[in-house]
């Protein structure tokens, strides 16, 4: 989509695997080879023990809404088409909390504790963004 006007992630060497994963419809989570922490967002060092011995695991792709807010107005022009926008913290069973939009839903039906699953949107050849939608 060459007419995409929203900000896109800047892929870093330490986040390349994450974005390679989303392109294959896989949600990869960084893991620490020393203290076994699961890490999100991707980093150069483990935030728990500072190790650089990091790897990746594939997440199940499900989660639970920890908290959310709904925006009905007052966004940048590029986001108006998405209103209302549900922004949520999603807890994954792998032990991480991701911030994401909840899409393909009736915003008024969203609840804390709701079960969601990852869904991927290909933006261009380099970036596929992960979102979540309610499990129906
Ligand atoms: Zn660690």
Give a description of the structure.
The protein is mainly β and 136 residues long. It has one domain. Helix content is 6%, strand content 37%. It contains 1 helix and 8 strands; from the N terminus they run αββββββββ. The strands form 2 sheets. The protein has a 5-stranded antiparallel beta sheet with strand order 6-5-4-7-8. Strands 2-1-3 form a 3-stranded antiparallel beta sheet. The radius of gyration is 16 Å and the shape is globular. The protein binds zinc ion.
Write a short abstract of this structure:
With 136 residues, this protein is mainly beta. It has one helix at residues 16-23; strands spanning 28-32, 38-39, 54-58, 62-71, 85-91, 97-102, 115-122, 128-134.
Key attributes of the depicted protein:
mainly beta; 8 strands; 136 residues; 5-stranded antiparallel β-sheet; binds zinc ion
Low-confidence stretches: none
Ions and ligands: zinc ion
Distance between the termini: 29 Å
Spell the H/E element sequence.
HEEEEEEEE
Q: Estimate nothing, just give the exact number of structural domains.
A: 1
**Residue share in helix:** under 10%
Strand content: 35-45%
- Rounded to the nearest angstrom, the radius of gyration is 16 Å
Explain the layout of strands and helices.
Blueprint: H1 16-23, E1 28-32, E2 38-39, E3 54-58, E4 62-71, E5 85-91, E6 97-102, E7 115-122, E8 128-134
Antiparallel strand pairs: 1-2, 1-3, 4-5, 4-7, 5-6, 7-8
């Amino acid at each position: 989509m060459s007419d995409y006007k929203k900000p896109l992630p800047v892929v870093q060497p330490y986040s390349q695997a994450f974005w390679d994963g989303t392109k294959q419809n896989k949600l990869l989570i960084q893991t620490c080879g020393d203290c076994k922490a699961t890490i999100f967002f991707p980093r150069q060092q483990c935030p728990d023990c500072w190790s650089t011995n990091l790897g990746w695991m594939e997440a199940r792709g499900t989660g639970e809404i920890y908290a959310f807010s709904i925006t009905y107005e007052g966004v940048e022009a590029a986001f108006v088409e998405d209103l209302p926008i549900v922004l949520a913290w999603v807890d994954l069973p792998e032990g991480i909390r991701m911030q994401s939009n909840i899409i393909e839903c009736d915003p008024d039906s969203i609840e804390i504790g709701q079960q969601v699953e990852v869904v991927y949107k290909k933006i261009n050849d380099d970036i596929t963004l992960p979102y979540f939608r309610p499990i129906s």
